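(Fold this chain)
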Amino acid sequence: RKQSSNYPLEDVTSKDMACNVGGDTGVQGLISVPQGAELTFEFKASLIDKSKPRLEPGHKGPCAVYLKKVDSAEKAAGSGSGWFKVWDEGYDSASGQWCTTKYTPTGKFTITLPKGLQAGEYLAKPELLALHNALEGRPQFFTGCMQIKIEGEGNLVPESTVSIPGYVKASDESVTFNIYSKGKESTYKTPGPSV
């Protein structure tokens, strides 16, 4: 979906938390994918200046991907209920890296969709959370939405879903976490529901 900004989202109560500024409205076109397909998402520091780094190195924090089953991905609003998480990654104690740090060189990350998901149309939402200003009450969310159609004979549906906005609160520890407090990174839990 087309978004009009790549600035960080700091108001967790905004409807833009779902698909970013301008992304609540659908566009024409779908990407058809098979069961268990790989989806690659790319984040850029600038939509215009390609010489800028893909991700700012200081923007450290977790990553996640959510899906929302819809009747029409071209027409459905992104904000609201029905979202479920299919992947997340926080702090990797083995490598000593946050998820965002791993993908800073390319600005891309790839996930594999769970096999057996109910066939049909979905919105797919990648999400990065930069925690460098979290102590000031300014967590920075970066997101957008992709319109996909999952093919095949799957019939799995999520046990529970969440509403976006509403899936995180500004007071949540995962949103206010101090990334500069060394030794505590391994205790970090990613925002929102479990996968």
